[in-house]
Amino acid sequence: MIDLKEVLTEYAAEKKYKTKELDGGKLGIDIAMKLKDGTFRYQFVWVWVVPGRGKGKDCIYFTSRAGTYTPNVNLYQLVKESGYGVYSTITIVPDKDKEGNPCETVVVQASPVQEFLSKEEFLYILWEVAEVADILEERHFGGDAN
After folding, report:
1. H or E segment at 46?
2. Average pLDDT estimate for 88-107
3. Contact 106, 65 (CB under 8 A)
4. Of 1, 22, 46, 119, which is most buried with the most CB atoms under 10 A?
């Protein structure tokens, strides 16, 4: 079984990504994605263990914001494009905006069972959650804001 903090810390050091420890045992990592023009976009992913989530088994929960939900969001297109992921899905969760006001946010998430997860799968899912959230953020929410 992988150690979440160890794998994330090693990966961040190898790639020179910024990490952050958050309340409640949550970890965050800022994934850099190189664009065709040589510039980078960044997508922040939160990662933590959710005890007993998967039929009594601990799961590693990955989540990344795509954007704030409003009635103007094209849900049909958003759902179609969520198929870019293999392990991930999209949902809308309660959140707070940058001013601290309640809102609902479209996120990309995944929650594989920890004991069945290899380091390679962990890193694949981490990248996928970041990449799909970044694609949706660009296409539906006006660009790199999360």
Report:
1. strand 40-54
2. 94
3. yes
4. 46
